[in-house]
Amino acid sequence: MVGRGNALTDLIQFLFDFAFAQGLGIAQISKDEEYRSLADKTRNLIIINTNWKNKAELPFIIGHEIGHLMEGDVGLSYYCGNALTSKERHADLYSLNLIFDYAAR
Ligand SMILES: [Zn+2]
C-alpha cells in the first residue's frame, strides 16, 4: 500500500491506541511461537506474544483480547483460535468490529 506504511503495523497501532484510550494496558512479549496471548482482567492488561506462529493473525488476536477486557470477562483468558464458548465468540466479534472500524475510517 503506497504511502501508508505497513498495513499490519498500522492496524496494530490503531488497536493499541484504542486500548490505551479505554485505560487498558498492553504488554508485548516474545515467547515461543505456540505461546498463546491472553487477557488478565485483574490487571486490566493484555499480554501479546509477538512471536506467535501466524503474524498475520496478530491484529485479530489483539482485538480479541481487548474484547475480553471490554466485556468484563474475569480471570485469565487465553487465545485459542476457535470459538468454543459464547465468551470466545463475543471476543471474536468484538475484534471483528474493531478491525471494521479501522478499515472503514
Ligand atoms: Zn479468548
Automatic annotation (TrEMBL):
It comes from the Bacteria. InterPro entries: Peptidase_M48 (IPR001915). This is Peptidase M48 domain-containing protein. Belongs to the peptidase M48 family. Keywords: Hydrolase, Metal-binding, Metalloprotease, Protease, Zinc. It comes from Lactobacillus bombicola. Binds 1 zinc ion per subunit. Residues 51-80 form the Peptidase M48 domain. Its cofactor is Zn(2+). Pfam families: Peptidase_M48 (PF01435).
